[in-house]
Design a protein that fits this description.
Length: about 190
Amino acid sequence: MANGSRDVDELIQRVATNAAQTCRAPVPPVVADAEIDDAEQRLGLALLPLLCRLYREVANGGFGPDYTLLPLSGAKNSLVEQYLALTAEREDGERVWPVGVVPILDWGCGMYAAVDCASAAGTVLLFEPNAGPADWAEAWFVDAWSLADWLETWLAGSGWYRQDADEQGQAVELAPWDAAGSRLAHIE
């Protein structure tokens, strides 16, 4: 786990190296500070510093596990556009997406990896709505207790999302996100 600034610098370096070596397409260019400022303004929240560094120092998405990180902004499938769509008021008045939790990766079939920007370490959550929960809080799981841990899991090639995780004895049961109910009930 990356704690100090040197550890974070080293983690960013390893992520950048891995991204350059494993991306199916050329790594997108990095974003400028002004783009991060604009994204935070549109989101109405501050992004996790490590997440900002990934966009500023590695690439504007396009790297990471399987379906790769979403671009920050400027595209229909960007972090900003997805967050705004997911947090928009629904006709039934029900909230399925908590304020302050930004989607970083679209797994497909309605599933997302998301970072809780309200947590100091940036807990990475899995939103998995496919079981059709009676309570939307039941669709939220903790994937990693920090974004740094999540990145380390990806770099190690040991994430639950690996197709051979079951065969390798690496399948894990993700814990429910205990704060989901209170965060979904929170009205700004």
